[in-house]
Design goal:
The chain is 48% helix and 15% strand. With 159 residues, the protein is an alpha+beta fold. It folds into 2 domains: 68 residues, no CATH class; 69 residues, no CATH class. The chain has a 3-stranded antiparallel β-sheet with strand order 4-1-5. A two-stranded antiparallel sheet has the order 2-3.
Length: 159
């Protein structure tokens, strides 16, 4: 089978790097949204490295190719859309925080990883989206207080 390239995307606001001398592989993702292409066979070998595996399962590095995720064991074989590793775009985050019913929000958040929950909190803070019930649910899941952070940010900006 020809060796296909897989897009691997950083989902965190930090530099992420993989340096594995055994596989003779070194790549850096400088910031959130950076995309690097990796040959699938190389990615399969890298997935045996516990650090790389954790970055993939926690959604720090995200693979958008569903077939590749299934082959690597990141998603179940019968999955049609992401179930284990869900990365939200800005429109989805806005929907979660504004129009999604609270019961559905709580169930949806239970499926998100800690990295994506923190991204959701950051989005709420950056856009000053305040819904008391949703902020309470996110506070229980992340220990981050959206309402208090927004209040403190406003107080800082008024000085």
């Amino acid at each position: 089978m020809e060796n296909r390239k897989i897009n691997v995307i950083s989902t965190v606001d930090a530099m992420v790097a993989i340096d594995d001398p055994q596989v003779r592989f070194s790549r850096t993702w400088e910031r959130k949204g950076t995309i690097r292409q990796i040959e699938f066979d190389t990615l399969r070998e890298l997935s045996y490295n516990i650090g790389v595996w954790n970055m993939l399962t926690k959604g720090i590095l995200y693979i958008d190719d569903m077939e590749a995720k299934i082959e690597l064991g990141l998603e179940s074989p019968d999955a049609k859309q992401p179930e284990n590793i869900i990365v939200l775009n800005d429109a989805q985050k806005k929907r979660y925080l504004t129009v999604m019913p609270v019961a559905e929000f709580k169930a949806a958040c239970a499926k998100l990883g800690s990295n994506e929950l923190n991204n959701l909190v950051d989005y709420a803070i950056d856009n000053e989206l305040i819904n008391y019930d949703k902020a309470t649910i996110l506070k229980q899941l992340t220990s981050r207080d959206i309402i208090k952070t927004i209040e403190l940010n406003r107080a800082d900006n008024n000085d």
